[in-house]
Each structure stands twice: as C-alpha cells, then as structure tokens.
Write a structure and sequence with these properties.
This protein is an alpha+beta fold. The chain contains five helices and eight strands; from the N terminus they run ααβαβββββααββ. It has one domain (46-93, 110-208). Helix content is 37%, strand content 30%.
Length: 209
C-alpha cells in the first residue's frame, strides 16, 4: 500500500493575507493623513496682505455707510485674498488659545493655524493646520454659505485630512453639532445690517438689508 501524502500547509493562508492587507491599508491611510496637500494659494508678502486687509475693511465700511444713508440692497464682493488677509490680521491681534485635544466629538475643536480661504463657483474652501495627537495635519473643508435668521449657515460638501478624503456623511453631523454650540454660533452671528451672504462666481457676496 502506498502512503497517503499529507498536503503541505500553504504559509500564505487567506487569513494571513487578509491580515497583512488590512495593515497595509492602515499604513496607506496614515501616510495620506500626514501628507500635506497643495496650498490653496501662495501667501502674499506682508505689504500686500496689509493692502488686502484694508480693501476688505473699506468694502465693509461702504456697506455700512449705504445702510446709514437709507439705501437698501447694496452688495459688496470680496475675493478670497481679501478674506484671508483680514482673517490673518484678526488672528494676529488675538491672544493664543490653549491647545485643545481631539478625543471625542463632544470636546473642543483643535486650534487652527495657517488658515487659508478660497472661493470657486458657489463654494468656499478653508484650509488650516491643526495638531492631532501631537502631529501637525492639514484639514481642508469645502462648503456652501448662506444667511438664515441673522446667522451664517455652513453646509459642508467636502472634507479632507491631509490628502485623505473623508466621506462627508461621516463628519457632517460632527461639524453641524460644533456649529450649533452657543460659543461657535455666537461667532457666526452676522451684523444686523447684513441680509444675505453667499459665494457666487468665485467671490464672497455680502448683501445689506
């Protein structure tokens, strides 16, 4: 009688391949998170930034003046460069806030640095650097803007961490919860004379009542 040959075990079993596949996916995701995406726009030199911030303030002043003269429906268009310059100016005059850890959706959002804003078609895209568990990552958020009952409403359409795109359905509820918090909502309150805010043709349009 012939001896029955025992089949050799395949070292590359299905579960071993699956395990290494999952590990590879995790590594790729981690690398994508840490990779920095292309900046929305090159930063302007200090002199240009000051001029852009002044243009922003001048346009706001013109809208307020129109309101005081009794005019209605006046509009002003702001470029992303003007908004970014004004934002950087405001951040520079404020004291640094303590770093907030990111552990759960009910905790404070991390501090945002190196913020940039860009307008395209009817969307605004904001990009900033934040520290997550001691690592600097770049967060990119795209959204639609509108005014409702005196407050700025933000409707997210795209969210990225580093170069990793996160399905908006996974973060939409978290973003909306943060925006509805009293402290955040107060920051989104519009001046009494503002009737509408929207992004149109790559510019931010502010309409007075």
């Amino acid at each position: 009688m012939f001896d029955k040959k025992v089949p050799e075990k395949n070292p590359l079993s299905f579960w071993r391949i699956a395990r290494w596949g999952v590990l590879l996916i995790v590594v790729i995701i981690f690398i994508q998170i840490l990779r920095k995406p292309k900046p929305l726009a090159p930063p302007p030199d200090p002199q240009t930034r000051v001029q852009l911030a002044q243009q922003f303030q001048q346009k706001l002043g013109d809208l307020e003046s129109a309101k005081q003269r009794g005019e209605t429906g006046a509009e002003a268009q702001f470029t992303s460069e003007e908004i970014s310059a004004a934002f950087v100016g405001d951040q520079a005059t404020q004291p640094a806030a303590p770093q907030a850890p990111v552990l759960a959706s009910d905790q404070p959002l991390p501090k945002a640095e190196n913020a940039q804003v860009s307008f395209a078609a009817d969307r605004v895209t904001a990009q900033f650097t934040s520290s997550v568990y001691g690592k600097d990552v770049v967060v990119t958020l795209s959204a639609h803007l509108r005014a409702e009952e005196g407050y700025l409403q933000i409707e997210p359409t795209e969210f990225k961490v580093g170069q990793l795109a996160i399905p908006i359905g996974l973060v939409d509820s978290v973003v909306r919860k943060k925006l509805s918090e009293p402290e955040t909502r107060e920051k989104l309150k519009l001046p009494d004379w503002v009737a509408d805010v929207r992004v149109e043709n790559g510019q931010l349009v502010v309409k007075e009542k």
